[in-house]
Amino acid sequence: MKKEFPENFLWGGAIAANQCEGAYQEGGKGLSIADVLPSGKDRLELLTKGKGIPEIDTEKYRYPNHEGIDFYHRYPEDIKLFAEMGFKCLRFSVNWSRIFPRGDEIEPNEAGLAFYDKVIETLLEYHIEPVLTISHYEMPLHLAKEYGGWKNRQLIDFFGRYCEVLFHRYRKQVKYWITFNEINSAFMIPYMSLGCFIPTPEDRDKVLFQGLHHQFVASSRAVKRCHEIIPGSQVGCMILCAPVYPYSCDPQDVWKAHQEERLMNYFCADVQVRGAYPSYGLRYMAERGVEPKTESADLETMAKYPVDYLSFSYYMSRTEKADQGDVSAVTGNIIGGVKNPHLAHSEWGWEIDPLGLRILLNRLYDRYRVPLFIVENGLGAQDTVVGDGSIHDDYRIAYLRDHLAAARDALDDGVDLIGYTSWGCIDLVSASTGEYRKRYGFIYVDKQDDGTGTLERKKKDSFYWYQNVIATQGRNLTD
Ligand code: BG6
């Protein structure tokens, strides 16, 4: 029997400040780590290897994050369009460097807060619930440059001050909070996730586990303060999830997949939901001599203040093989693994696997038994505007329809799924490539990679499709 999505299901979309706002120097904003990332092939190298903090070089590179899609000035029009689709919630992030331009100030920047006051007021006027991500790949550049990012313990206090400001300011308006976007992406993109770069490959694990430890403590402290300041608030962790499959039933492949799954998908959630480092994680760190330095109250804080819900992004699954010699590796994304012969992939090499979402939801719920929230999912694809100005993105509709059907199946399986926010509900700058042409939106934005474009918004076919999905509570998905 197929269930409808629940009555109070949080339907919506997701965006991040650094990828949509633009206005990178307005309203007293400081530079963030995203502002120095160019588009083009050097970007991925910087994100994954993080050899050093780049300087802005406009002679050599383009910086699409500087303009984004100008959400900073156009948010009233954009939120109106979200409301027209029937959004019940919007997941967005606050750009830390608008509130604390350098990150280590005592007093916040009032102009930065005033901007988010207006965004949140507009959402509430349309009865759209704000789901606020506190840190989404946009920490102040100064903290990365002068303090070395999250490997420095002082960041816990700077983040705490920032959270304190947000919790007090939005205590009446915001119930749903997310501390760190894709916290486990530290393993893949340390620069973006931790603001750290890795001096030598040997230092990698040491830096990552230390940085993560500080984020775990900071997140638990945020949970504590959020609950104290905003009774009834819900604070979630956010994990980049790709369920891992063994390439074959060879126990070596199964073991390899199991190990990858635990470290990449579960390690951070085990700490943040269950409140303690898992035994396999302790062993992994001990064997490599990379246990983080801790202070006496850290473990107690982590145990006492776990998150209320687990939110995650899902774009693809991942396949692992013990001996990779005879199969091709996946290319084009940061997740890795080997090619799965049963799956098609996007133009950017991301394998498309709707059933993987049902598998993931079941695995997560079996393990954690807390509410789950899909806060990112979608297809990055190039769109064509045809003569009459319409955009027929049936490929996107097919992707989203199949994933939503899988989510509905998981609800039938008994999973407590509270919401779904499609990634990049309006086209924005890609995080991994810095491109505009990698579009996820229901709303097209006229902006091209060569810098041209009017920024005009247009409704794609998927806009009307999603509007109908929400209006019918997903009843007619597969009809
Ligand atoms: C997630 C991030 O990893 O994936 C987003 O939280 C990002 O910031 C999204 O944009 C899609 O990735 P990309 O590289 O296609 O923009």
Write a concise keyword list for the protein shown above.
single chain, 479 residues, alpha/beta, TIM Barrel, 8-stranded parallel β-barrel, two-stranded parallel sheet, globular, binds 6-O-phosphono-beta-D-glucopyranose, GH_1_N_CS, EC 3.2.1.21, hydrolase, glycosidase
Highest-level CATH class: Alpha Beta
Label the structural class.
Answer: alpha/beta
Which regions are unreliable across 5 or more consecutive residues at pLDDT < 50? Answer: none
Contiguous helical run count: 15
Q: Number of DSSP strands?
A: 12
Reading side by side through the largest sheet, how are the strands ordered? 1-2-3-4-5-7-9-10
Task: Report the biggest beta sheet as strand number plus sense, adding barrel if it closes.
Answer: 8 strands, parallel, barrel
Query: What is the string of SSEs from the N terminus onward?
Result: EHHHEHHEHHEHHEEHHHEEHEHEEEH
What binds here, in terms of ligands, is: 6-O-phosphono-beta-D-glucopyranose
Strand content: 5-15%
Taken from the alpha-carbon principal axes, the silhouette is globular
Instruction: Quote the distance from N terminus to C terminus.
Output: 15 Å
Work out the count of structural domains: 1
Give the mean pLDDT: 95
